[in-house]
Design goal:
Order of helices and strands: HEHEEEHEEEEEEEEEH
Protein name: JmjC domain-containing protein
CATH architecture: Sandwich
Number of helices: 4
Strand content: 25-35%
Number of strands: 13
Largest sheet: 8 strands, antiparallel
Cofactor: Fe(2+)
Structural class: alpha+beta
Distance between the termini: 61 Å
GO molecular function, one term: 2-oxoglutarate-dependent dioxygenase activity
Keywords: Iron, Metal-binding
CATH class: Mainly Beta
CATH topology: Jelly Rolls
Pfam families: JmjC_2
């Protein structure tokens, strides 16, 4: 299946990329889910695949990690199943990544897919990467706040959230709508009905990761064998001077 993204890339890159969140209504017209909730649940039963269940009942958050053997214990509200890197395991979903190839390949991370029942979500949080969240089947309400210093806390050891925030975006997404969120903007989404969401993530390595990655590149290819030399070194009064 070919997905056609309705987006003016030059305008988007100038006004929004790494700057401001935006809702792209009908970014994908006539959107068709590349997999079903049952297929997603099946992937989460595989030991090689990273998955988790997040639920909240009576004000308490719970997180459990796959592989899962059964979903019979789950109710009809307030939980989400999230599966990482689905594009690596399910070829039809990889087609959702292609429309975003206007951005550098090295920035693309993976496709995370979630299935949520009414009320399902992971709570208010922020990420340090760019993400395009595509609405599949169902509807989901999204709130996004301004990029400010925010207190983070852990209602569960495997769940990092932020305090409540004032929204600059508060919208219901329908199939084919896309929400773009740059790094550092707090956001939260809750399903209004059974809903599928597709998150195309873009990695943003920090300085340490960039240096470490370059060092790995040099070592793996046995580069950097030229020794330091300074045949034209000037004299100095103090040995610690930098000339």
């Amino acid at each position: 299946m070919e997905y056609q993204l309705t987006l003016n890339w030059p305008d988007f890159l100038e006004r929004h990329w790494q700057k401001r969140p935006v809702v792209l209504k009908r970014g994908f017209s006539n959107f068709i889910d590349p997999l079903s909730p049952d297929e997603l649940a099946g992937l989460a039963m595989e030991s090689e695949i990273d998955s988790r269940l997040v639920s909240h009942q009576d004000g308490k958050w719970q997180v459990s990690h796959g592989p899962f053997e059964s979903y019979d214990h789950l109710g009809e509200s307030n939980w989400s199943l999230l599966v990482q890197a689905v594009n690596h395991w399910h070829e039809p979903t990889a087609a959702l990544m292609r429309p975003f190839r206007a951005l550098p390949d090295w920035r693309i991370d993976d496709l995370m897919i979630s299935f949520s029942v009414p009320g399902g979500g992971v709570g208010p949080h922020l990420d340090q990467y760019d993400v395009f969240i595509i609405q599949g089947t169902g509807r989901r309400r999204w709130r996004v706040g301004e990029k400010l210093q925010m207190r983070q806390h852990c209602p569960h050891p495997d769940l990092l959230q932020v305090d409540p925030f004032e929204a600059i975006i508060d919208e219901e997404l329908e199939p084919g709508d896309i929400l773009y969120i740059p790094p550092g903007f707090p956001h939260e989404g809750y399903a209004l009905e059974n809903a599928m969401n597709y998150s195309v993530g873009f990695r943003a390595p920090n300085s340490r990761e960039l240096i470490s990655g370059f060092a790995d590149y040099v070592l793996q290819r046995e580069l950097g064998n030229t020794y330091y030399s300074d045949p034209d070194i000037p004299s100095r009064k103090h040995a610690a001077d930098i000339l």
